[in-house]
Amino acid sequence: MDANLARCSKSPPEGIPFMSKLVYITNTSLDGYIEDAAGNFDWTSSAEMYAFFTELLGQMGTLLYGRRLYEKMAYWGSPVDTYPQEHRAFAEIWQRPDKWVYSRTLSTVATPNTRLIRTFEPDLIRDLKQASSQDISIGGAELASAALEANLVDELHVVVHPVMVGGGKPALRITSRRDFTLVETRRFDTGAVYLRYDILSGLGC
Question: What is the pLDDT of residues 54-100, one digit of tens each?
């Protein structure tokens, strides 16, 4: 059995070490942008989508962020009881994991369990994947693109919203072809669609 199959199971066969998955989670427009030309992220959400992302993040042991996305997500670092009741579960789940923030310009980070990293080093993430007992999410188009180019990303979890923005920041910028296998879909009440792709072609895990 190939060692790559260890990533498909929380209990890999004897003699094959467990390796966590690196998962790129992102929202995107129909035309493939994570933000419009003005830098806006204003996708329509709902209680159903909050519940979905709460469950998804609950599976992650570490969250890796680029600077811009981290600055947006840091909103969730305040005391949980300061949020509307319907958003508290998400805030609690978001605060639990360790967080790595990749930035050359930030001088400090204000959220709990957060580490500031200056440069992208693939071996650091490979070591984390081997050491972690949970999967790892990566967010931010530039950071995720670098990880994909370094063959670190195992899955794409993409929520496609029913809107076109005509330009902005694309969800990914890569220089060579990557083939993925569609392993899961879901439709939300907002009209958005969740697509989960596995980079391990044919494994469907």
Answer: 999 999 999 999 999 999 999 999 999 999 999 999 999 999 999 99
The residue written with tokens 């709902």 in the block is 46
pLDDT for 155-175, tens place per residue?
999 999 999 999 999 999 888
d(CA 181, CA 184): 9
Q: What is the largest CA-CA distance in the chain?
A: 51
- The pTM of the full predicted model, rounded to 2 decimals, is 0.86
Q: Which DSSP string corresponds to 1-54?
A: --GGGGGG-SSPPTTS---PPEEEEEEEETTSEEE-TT--------HHHHHHHH
Rounded CA-CA distance 74/101 in Å is: 11
Instruction: Name the pairing type of β-strands 169-170 and 33-35.
Output: antiparallel
For residues 129 and 20, is the Cβ–Cβ distance under 8 A? yes
> Which has the closest alpha carbon to 74: 86, 84, 87, 65?
65
H/E run at residue 144: helix 141-149
